[in-house]
Amino acid sequence: MTTAATIELFEDEHVADLYPVSISRPAFAIGCGSYRLIDLVSTLGRPVSWRVRAHLCEIAQLDYGAARQQGSAAGPKLLLNAALVPSTATLVEIERLLERAQPGVVRTHERIAAAWLPPTARPLPDESTSSWSEFSDALREAVSGLEPLEAELPLFEFPHDIIRYHPRVLPGNLARRIAAGEFTQREDGVFVGEGATLGQYVVTDTRQGPIVIDHDARIGPYCYLSGPAYIGPHARVIEHSAIKDGVALGHTTKIGGEIEASVIEPYTNKQHHGFLGHSYLGSWINLGAGTCNSDLKNTYGQVNIEYHGRKVPTGMQFVGTIVGDYSKTAINTGIFTGKTIGTCSMVYGFVTTNVPSFVNYARLFGQVSETPVEVMIATQGRMFARRQVEQRACDIQLIRDMHELTRHERQIGGDPLAL
After folding, report:
1. What angle do CA 165, 247, 232 make, to 5 degrees?
2. CATH 3.30.70.120 fits 160-416, yes or no
3. Reported pTM
């Protein structure tokens, strides 16, 4: 085993296909099955570096530690696509590649999933002086002469792949959490971290998998929890809630109503009654009371989702909604099957189409208008203050950058949205 080898996570040119999920976070920070890729590779005892899009560099530097500097370290390295599905199976494959230390490339659907570069390989261009396309071209050239390596390394290609892989990887990921964490088995299959509390008359069903309640999480009275499920640190599940069929809640979330087979990222609130199924919610989202989504077509057929103006077949019968960071829904909002909601949008009534980023969407009432960027910056500041989170200059800049990067979503025939 080559102890000097390092790991470098890189975003490729397909990362934009993961919008709205990936516009506000590096691909390696997408939650699925209760883990992010950065969480898993950080356990390997190797130096970890990363290459991300320019508008995320400062946030990634601050949020993922000074030890994980952007850029390339000298010596042998294992390059990993940042869009790898975060699972224990993926981690095993990465460990095998590290142990073999054999120069070569792993491709998944023609994309570079991993590449072991020898010390003699030509250095990749420095990201501070090169464009994204220059890096991508240099990477393809660097691996062009390498032998193919065998490894099962699935990638997120579209946002609905998070929903696809989540139930597949959740059981194995929870087994790893239980083995590596400090949990008390309160009853058969229910593992509770320090400071976590369960209210009276909570019903748990672990026949399909374990329930992991991380430290300082709170479960209200009269709740129903069905495994496999993960309740993150400091999460709060309010009374009379149902968490079932494979749910992963990020830290510091507030959750109520009925949640099924969904991923919810940190700091998001769905605190009131209403159904959420087979869906992905980013961070800093608030769903108003009575908000519900459909995750099944009336025809019981497979769901197609529109991305960037083209319909993509998911191959799945159950697909709910995908919501970008900072978006909000009003009370009694109804979201149709397989719809996406961009980042920083305010949604009212029925969501019958995809929702662009930075809009007030009230299509039912004949109103769709742009949300000013300054309004979203002020909203971000108020939300952060409620959770005792500092609003940094880079957080404000992220709002501005996302507004600019999604400008094309709010234009019709080249003209700005104006209704």
Report:
1. 110
2. no
3. 0.94
